[in-house]
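Key idea: predict the complex, not the pieces.
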Amino acid sequence: MADDKKLTTRAADFSAWYNEVVLRAELADYSPVRGCMVIRPRGYGIWERMQRQLDTMFKDTGHENAYFPIFIPESFLQKEAEHVEGFAPELAVVTHAGGKKLEEPLVVRPTSETIIYAMYAKWVQSYRDLPVLINQWANVVRWEMRTRLFLRTTEFLWQEGHTAHATLDEVEEETRRMLGVYRDFMETYMAMPVVTGLKSNAEKFAGAVRTYACEAMMQDNKGLQAGTSHNLGQNFSKAFDFKFQTEAGGTEFAWNTSWGVSTRLVGGLVMTHGDDKGLQVPPLLAPIEIVIVPIWRSDEERSRVLEAAERVRKSLHAWERRAPGKLRVHLDSREGMKPGAKYYEWELRGIPIRMELGPREIEKNQAVLVRRDTGVKVTVTLDSVAEDCADMLHQIQDAMLVTARERREKNSHRGGMDYKRFREIMEGEGGFVYAGWCGSAECEAAIKDETKATIRVLPDEEFRSAKTPETCLKCSGKAEFEALWAKAY
Amino acid sequence: MADDKKLTTRAADFSAWYNEVVLRAELADYSPVRGCMVIRPRGYGIWERMQRQLDTMFKDTGHENAYFPIFIPESFLQKEAEHVEGFAPELAVVTHAGGKKLEEPLVVRPTSETIIYAMYAKWVQSYRDLPVLINQWANVVRWEMRTRLFLRTTEFLWQEGHTAHATLDEVEEETRRMLGVYRDFMETYMAMPVVTGLKSNAEKFAGAVRTYACEAMMQDNKGLQAGTSHNLGQNFSKAFDFKFQTEAGGTEFAWNTSWGVSTRLVGGLVMTHGDDKGLQVPPLLAPIEIVIVPIWRSDEERSRVLEAAERVRKSLHAWERRAPGKLRVHLDSREGMKPGAKYYEWELRGIPIRMELGPREIEKNQAVLVRRDTGVKVTVTLDSVAEDCADMLHQIQDAMLVTARERREKNSHRGGMDYKRFREIMEGEGGFVYAGWCGSAECEAAIKDETKATIRVLPDEEFRSAKTPETCLKCSGKAEFEALWAKAY
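Result:
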């Protein structure tokens, strides 16, 4: 794919647009291993900033990091019946090692509940050892049939929190707390609004009692499950005989939670903010926030402009921004490339601010700042350019969330929904539909069969409609819940 | 193993001492998977600080992070003859996935040269695309027969840098640069002095042209290879047809380097600094630098002391230390545990400073600081306790390096070495022996057979003896090199 070929537009083919943006912005590439991707530096730089921020938020809520083996004995997975049923079809299995056939095959972790709770059972004796609040940053493998860069890959990077507590109340509280951390991260840092809520039984994690999720809407109106937080009850502690002495002197099985987000978030970021020019990275997650493009037409101008541009770069970098640290600025001094070609490339890569600096600007002690999100240009004085950039970055971050939220609301449907209208929406432009559900697995399955839409969440109170739906979308029986329906990734 | 049982001493059984320290300081634990360990939060906290610092140093030298797949097609490894020969016996192989037998087995990466250079071959067309300066933080698997916590585990965490350059000069420069970064990190942050130099052909990385290494001496006088940096020449670029257009218009194979350090460093830290009381963590890598142990004898004293201790903790935490960031302080307010038991535990865990705070100290507006490395106690006023702690941490960091360097020099032997004396040393107390080597693989192999000692490095100039050895330790032929010999992990 030549770099000068125009991007497919979102309207023409959203899926082709997505792949082109990911590849041409050099976020990731296909690898020679089926379904596995390579995360290139521009993509990894975004993931790294996500990691740093989430890690800080996990530590602020009392969690520590640890690391557990990538291999899990096959027999461990079989100890929790629902868990093995859910994951068995997706396992990659090591049968040989060190030149020999293994006595017991080892599974490459698809998730680590089993090995982690087996260790906790060894470490925890008494209520005094609780809670255990551990997170792990790791790679996991799920053998998927259809893969998409970032969204669904055979191997992906993620974090998985695994906690153990003395009471049911505490696990429910922890499960909700981490859902809140995810939501805060997604909205504040990714500028990606989400609906939070409970998963239906059909959609919950294999082995969980309750699964909560953050659901975002992509620009093709499909839902993306962006993070999940599971109340595991005592399911795994019973499977792994993870007991503790209570304060009262008895013994009880421990209560567990697990929660995770993955490199899928990078895909969510692309599909939330990208446009027909390419990627848009929210400033807080952008490895480069400002790119300086110097403009010259002669050799004489070239050295003068480059010298001034380097001075500006240094002054921006040296400026003390209170938070979130130094301005991240790059000077694109490549030769043999026209400014227009540079603009095009940096727009494709989604850098929030472009600074244009030519002989005329320098003479007037000015620079032109161009916002990636709106395309608006402003001329500023070089005396206060760092402050102006920092302000503009704030504005962009805020505006991106507002834009994404407005788009989501525009494509959300509430009230007056019958099944005919619902099918029209799902066959047409798609979107989020809030509608009544009787609570039966049959209605849920029939809707999925007929429309491919699934219950994304049973939304938390603040997202529910002012007027509670009274009847089930499918059977017209009494609605037990308001459900958020959508087609999803 | 009960926590109140005394540690085995280093003199009695160094190997048992090491395992006990790692387990009882809760750095790591054995896992149910043969040869794989669990890195517990106290161990991971040290690794995490190592990572942060190394990552900063890699970025300061122009490198970016990326991520490549954990699976490598078996055929890729076979493309570089020496490489596959070196790694074949240690491979873990996925033969089944998604419920089916794979057409081509996938190897779990033991190192990533093959898959990475295959990708670079795709990304790089011209000299303008060079250099490529990429690092990866990842897990790797090598099926080892004998494993030791941190030192040699089937799965371990590491970073692997992989760079591509246009000229031989540049790769040699990069190889040496990263060796220097490692040395700087090990000495400045780990307080672990190292000898740098070139590996012999027998000991170099499978597929490298030249391997440089940092070699440290543990307290049992054995060597530990702590980091390696490889000049790969064009070996891998030829195997993977990784060519580029030169500035002159021709085509040439690219030149590559790779370099890595791993969680083995945590083991090196334990064996460099630990004593018969347990672990000692250099302040710059300590997740907790200062532990406050409040002392009380009655309930009345308890609340008064705890209140004061919490005030001190807050004031230490809030104090603005210029570098390396906030003081990392923990208040141990556990009840039902005597101060002495707490001292014992925190000494075992290697916290650099213990602050004792009782009613008498509080009354006098004082605190007692106890250095973990020397055991020296000083009484300081609470008015300047943060500055005093920061100063003491500096002193401890410096002293730990000095102590380790003195120990190494005391156990290094130079000059007047004949083979009889060499064998006595290797059969006895061990240590580093600097001696002449004719350069023949036969002498090297014979020495290894007879004494288990190997050439750790051909030391860089600054480490060589003032008087160059003239004859080979083994054959008494003309010495071509001065070699550093030792038994090693």
